[in-house]
Design goal:
With 183 residues, the protein is of the alpha/beta class. It has one domain: Lumazine/riboflavin synthase (Rossmann fold, 3-Layer(aba) Sandwich), CATH 3.40.50. The chain is 39% helix and 16% strand. It has a 4-stranded parallel sheet with strand order 2-1-3-4, with helices on both faces. α1 packs parallel to α4 and α2 packs parallel to α3. The protein is globular. It starts with 19 loop residues before the first strand and ends in a 29-residue tail after the last helix. Its EC number is 2.5.1.78. Belongs to the DMRL synthase family. Catalyzes the formation of 6,7-dimethyl-8-ribityllumazine by condensation of 5-amino-6-(D-ribitylamino)uracil with 3,4-dihydroxy-2-butanone 4-phosphate. This is the penultimate step in the biosynthesis of riboflavin.
Length: 183
């Protein structure tokens, strides 16, 4: 198993207004998923946030659920949780790469996502990483989402447009006054 190297952890994100996070989990390995969820919930609550939880069949469905929630609900951020353990086929590579890539693409569109989908060689590695009293990767994913929410709020808060593209009424032309007259 991997050693426990010392590394820097950012201070917990703080908020002036409430933050609401959606935890999306693929509970294929239920005991591991439960530990990831426990860590994520604890971190969100410690930052004063609230959370909702949905389950999806597998890691490949996690990004789709987050995309749906972003379009149809009102969450500030998302925590993606699950576990993929290497098997005998290349399915492992497909699930790991495609779920991670889809989450990254959603993030590049402006969604605040913490990726806690474990990709491991064996069950003992997953157990250590999921354990809230050990590596607590669920808590780490929640912390990542919360830090991104804090950045989004710092740099202008929620936008009505898709990702970083503003709605038409958000455009401000140089030399234009609030009443749409020009200088």
């Amino acid at each position: 198993m991997a050693g426990h190297e010392s590394h820097y952890i950012l201070p917990r994100a703080s908020f002036d207004k409430p933050v609401k996070i959606l935890i999306v989990v693929a509970p294929y390995y239920k005991d591991i998923a439960d530990n990831l969820i426990a860590g994520a919930k604890a971190e969100i609550e410690a930052a004063g946030g609230t959370w909702d939880l949905v389950e999806v069949p597998g890691a490949l469905e996690v990004p789709t659920a987050i995309g749906l929630a972003e379009r149809m609900s009102n969450f500030d951020g998302y925590v993606a949780l699950g576990c993929v353990i290497r098997g005998e086929t290349t399915h492992y590579d497909t699930v790991c790469n495609d779920s991670s890539r889809a989450l990254q693409l959603l993030g590049l569109q402006g969604l605040c996502i913490g990726n806690g989908i474990l990709t491991v060689e064996n069950r003992p590695q997953a157990e250590v990483r999921a354990d809230p009293a050990d590596q607590n990767k669920g808590g780490g994913a929640a912390a990542a989402a919360l830090h991104l929410v804090a950045l989004a709020r710092k740099w202008g808060g929620q936008r009505n447009g898709v990702g970083f593209v503003p709605d038409a009424e958000e455009y401000k032309l140089a030399g234009q006054f609030k009443d749409n007259s020009t200088a």
